[in-house]
Design a protein that fits this description.
Layout (H helix, E strand, L loop, with lengths): L2 E6 L2 H7 L6 E4 L12 H11 L4 E5 L7 H12 L5 E6 L8 H8 L5 E6 L6 H10 L4 E5 L14 H13 L3 E4 L5 H8 L5 E4 L15 H12 L20
Parallel strand pairs: 1-2, 1-8, 2-3, 3-4, 4-5, 5-6, 6-7, 7-8
Helix pairs in contact: 3-4
Length: about 240
């Protein structure tokens, strides 16, 4: 079943989204890159406020290929008790970070690797590598929000293969990248675990504007109409699933 991931930038948006049928409340700063990070204090404030009433995820920021730097940011975000931590993988050179990230996953921290369709990445190779490293999930997104949506960079057949291979590798599957209602309807048919939105949830479809709850509810209805909207997250590592 498919669920909605809604990216929020502050506690006011989180409180409003928590009252909807959204499956995951994702914490990030949309004005600071594809995976712009909120401050640790803001992450902690929002996670504390949500108090496990909804599943939460948080980015660690658009970080360079530096294993120690990524490791430090993950550990800091993990202290907030957010459910999932999203890590941007911007090139195939990030494989040098996998051993260190694997050591974090073995401690029970649920990691989600974010791959970018507008970057030169070997998607299929990464699925196996992330699974072997103990990641809980993978997301396919876009890094440059001004350069079109995900569907401008990958066709529906390739996206379906990506989702199927991710599932074979026991990874929670996510799809995002300036998606519209029209593209979400096509992607829903592929049955990813979640479809992520920010721009489509905001007033005037401007990602730095505030979230319009009417748009949130409309997309929940569109993408999750076949679901019963009850969260059931398994808590044991990479075999986690969203089952609603």
């Amino acid at each position: 079943m498919t669920h909605i991931l809604a990216s929020v930038k502050n506690i006011k948006e989180a409180q409003a989204v928590a009252k909807t049928g959204v499956g995951i409340i994702d914490l990030k700063d949309p004005s600071n890159g594809a995976l712009g990070a909120l401050s640790y204090n803001k992450i902690n404030e929002i996670v504390t406020e949500i108090n496990h009433k909804k599943t939460t995820s948080s980015t660690i920021g658009d970080l360079p290929n530096n294993a120690e730097l990524i490791y430090q940011h993950i550990n800091k975000v993990a202290e907030t008790n957010v459910d999932f931590i999203k890590i941007g993988i911007f090139s195939d050179e990030y494989t040098t970070c996998l051993d260190l990230l694997s050591s974090i996953a073995k401690k029970g921290v649920k990691l989600v690797g974010v791959l970018f369709a507008d970057k030169p990445l070997d998607y299929m190779m990464w699925l196996k590598s992330l699974s072997n490293a103990g990641f809980s999930g993978v997301m396919l997104d876009t890094s440059d929000k001004s350069n079109g949506s995900l569907c401008n960079h990958i066709n529906i057949e390739s996206l379906e293969k990506f989702i199927q291979e991710a599932r074979k590798n026991l990874l929670l599957t996510g799809v995002a990248g300036s998606l519209t209602k029209k593209s979400a309807l096509k992607i829903k048919k592929l049955n990813p675990d979640y479809i992520g939105f920010r721009t489509a949830l905001c007033s005037e479809n401007v990602r730095n504007n505030g979230i319009d709850i009417n748009k949130v509810n409309e997309l929940v209805e569109l993408c999750c109409s076949a679901n019963t909207l009850k969260q059931n997250i398994k808590q044991n590592g990479k075999h986690s699933h969203l089952a609603i």
